[in-house]
Amino acid sequence: MARIIGGIGISHTPSMGIEYDRGMAGGFDPRWQRWFDGTRPVRDWLERLSPSRMVIVYNDHLNHFTFEAYPTLAIGAAETFPQADEGWGPRSLPDLSGDVALCWDMANRLIRTGFDLTVCQQLSVDHGIYSWFPYLFDQPWEVPIVPIAVNMIRHPLPTIERMWALGGAIRAAVEAYPADERVLVVATGGMSHQISGARFGMANEDLDRYFLRELQHGYRTLMAIEQEDYMRLGGVEAAELSVWFAMRGALSDDIARIHDFYTFPQITGCGVVSFEEPAAFAATPRA
Amino acid sequence: MEGRFVHIRGGDLWVAGASAAQDDAPAVLCLHGMSFDSRSWAAEMTALRGGRSVYAYDLRGYGRSRAPVDVRVDHLADLAALIARLGLDRPILASLSLGANVAMAYALENPSAVRGLLLASPGLPGHAWTSEHAPTVAAALARREGEAAAKSYWLSHPLFDSLAGQAEARAAVEAMVADYDGWHWLHPEQMIPLPCVADKLDRLTLPILVVNGTRDLDEYRAIGRRIAAQAPNARHVELAGAGHVVNLERPAAFLGLLEQFLAAIDADADELPPPIPFDLSEPGTFVYGGAESTRGLALNRFALSLKQPENRLAFLADEAGYMARFALTDEQAAQVRGRDWTGLLRSGGHLQAILKLAATVGQSLWDIGAHNSGIGTDAMQRLCPRRVSRLPGAGEGAA
Q: Are B358 and B238 part of one and the same domain?
């Protein structure tokens, strides 16, 4: 049977992707060198962990979905998930691959357990995934993904409690899947930032570090904070921290914290945390 | 000197000084040199008080700031957190030697977080030393023969030769070194190194004053000249007769330079936007919901169409003709023509959609944010990140 072996929470921002391309071509800007260096241990751990599948909970930024039909929750079910052109031409990166059988199996189970996801048989993915992905995974990108998109651009957003429950449902769906897959759950959303209004550029590093510190054991405390309070204190886009609970909710209470890192390069708090389940490296039990 | 402990990143940092009753001028934050502590800035702190906040802190592991137990020493993260916690709005950093290295690296990574740098006898992260580099030798000696041997080497190094005839400065230096426990020399593996600055001096565009002593080591003086030559807005001054510890050796002359430097920065202080409120009301924040989405449906359709290159060309060739394909209101069309980014958000434009329009007309997220805040784009770029510090459940905090 499939099982969850660990989880990652990570920020995303367009400049993270742009600076990766610049950095690899001609050296990193020092502010982004820190992020590159700070995410290396996660990359190295992932290489050792070598998950066979990944469930990635992320948010789109009007680059695939538009307001004609903007799903609150959606899941991809396709063999490939190409990069969305955000309007400045795609970066030279490969498509992400999907495991259609797992995608459908998860969609079916999630819908039956109360998460009425929109199923997308065509889904292009923007910097919500593509900005951080190259920092953590060297090419070729061989691990198939199951992308789950969460509306974070128009209120009302799914609640923190709902994201937590989604995590639990993801875990149940993975554990019911008959193939021997070792599954990593990733959630991505910006940390403190606000990119419009007169509060543009606000940066609450203390809030972000507090969140990273408490996510492992103090998640109940974090969940008791209103989504609106995250927005007041960390900027309106800090609501994207809600997405992180879908990862934490998919993990057990016995996880070990492997690494965390935080920096504030420009106008978005950039953080990453990785957790490992106790039996992550144990041989897969035969059914 | 009065002061207090500020809890940052799992430990307490000692901060000497206090906020001014009324801040008429930007705050000054002082960073000491290796094996020293905040006491080395006592004269400057006394002289500058009144009208502006002046602080000096003990870098982690120095003075009264204890060495960490389970985190690595990251002077840059400490400085960023300290500035936020003290609620300093773009302070001026006055720094000596090691402190100057930290100040430069911080300004490079946070170009808008600092108004100016006074660099006394700076080193230069990333510089390859050709002469004996005393901190490296002291660290090796400390690990091999212990802290006492390292301190004895350190104090007798030519770096401090010029102190021989200056009883007061020498006593101050000896007192600080006596209290230093050599932690950084003994625990290099627990130090996060500063990023390279040497090859990026051209990016240090803020006002900088470099001060060296004529009796300092040649290589430090050469570094001072190099920083002044390569950083676009830097000036270099040498104080006759002083050595490395230039502020303690020529206190009056040094203070004069510092005051001149501060006065020049005060004179061209930018007009600042209002402080950041911790609420979600306009114009600080536009929360995007159903009403906005209805109002902006056609506008967002128009803006998102500009993701396609052929549409960008069509729009640029004939803005009015292209807009006519979408059912924009007259007001929205006028806002597009006027590049009225704030108006477009009020008219239901979603930031992620309006961004495509900005990019099409050669503007960026920065232009939108600056327009929303009522300041120029350059000023906004200097200002960001606009650090605030407040945790859930806390009372009124600094913005």
A: no
**Using CA of residue A245, residue A247, residue A251, residue A256, what is the dihedral sign?**
negative
pLDDT along chain B (399 residues), means of 10: 89 89 82 97 88 92 89 91 89 97 93 90 96 94 94 95 93 96 93 93 90 96 94 90 95 91 76 77 93 98 96 96 97 94 96 96 94 86 85 60
Q: What are phi and psi of B76, to 5 degrees?
A: -70, -45
State pLDDT tens for residues B93-132: 999 999 999 999 999 988 778 999 999 999 999 999 999 9
Assigned domain for B391 exists = no
Q: Which of these, A146, A189, A166, A158, lies nearest to A52 by C-alpha position? A: A146
Question: How far is Cα of residue A180 from the mean position of the Cα atoms in its chain?
Answer: 23
Domain extent, residue B33, equals 3-130+194-267
The answer to whether residue B45 sits within a structural domain is: yes
pLDDT of B232: 81
Q: Is A61 a catalytic site residue?
A: no
Bond preceding residue A156 cis, omega within 30 of 0: yes
User: What's the CATH code of the domain at B246?
Assistant: 3.40.50.1820
Domain co-membership, B252 together with B295? no
Q: Assess whether B321 and B236 both reside in one domain.
A: no
Same domain, B14 and B84: yes
A-contacting residues in B 329-348 (Cβ below 8 Å): 345
Per the CB < 8 A criterion, the answer to whether A126 and A84 are in contact is yes
DSSP label of B307: T
Q: Are residues B35 and B107 in the same domain?
A: yes
- Whether B365 and B241 share a structural domain: no
Give chain B positions within 8 Å (CB) of A201: 369, 380, 383-386
Say yes or no: B212 and B306 in one domain: no
pLDDT tens per residue across span B222-276? 999 999 989 888 899 999 999 999 999 999 999 989 998 988 887 766 556 667 8
Does the domain made of A3-276 have the CATH classification 3.40.830.10? yes
> Do B357 and B294 share a structural domain?
yes
* B322 within domain boundaries: yes
> For residue B309, which residues of chain A lie inside 8 Å, CB to CB?
89
Judged by a CB distance cut-off of 8 A, whether residue B386 touches chain A is yes
Buried b (16+ CB within 10 A) or exposed e, B236-258: bbbbeebbbbbbbbbbebbbebb
Residue A217 falls in the annotated catalytic set: no
Give per-residue pLDDT as tens, A239-268.
999 999 999 999 999 999 999 999 998 889
Show me where the domains of chain A are located.
3-276
Q: pTM here?
A: 0.68
pLDDT(A38) > 70: yes
Torsion of CA B309, B310, B313, B319, to 10 degrees: -110
Complex ipTM above 0.90? yes
Assess if residue B313 is contained within a domain: yes
Tell me how many domains chain B contains.
2
Indicate if the alpha-carbon torsion angle A279, A281, A283, A286 is positive or negative.
positive
Return the residue in A33, A202, A259, A262 with the most chain B beta carbons within 10 A, the one to mutate for interface testing. A202
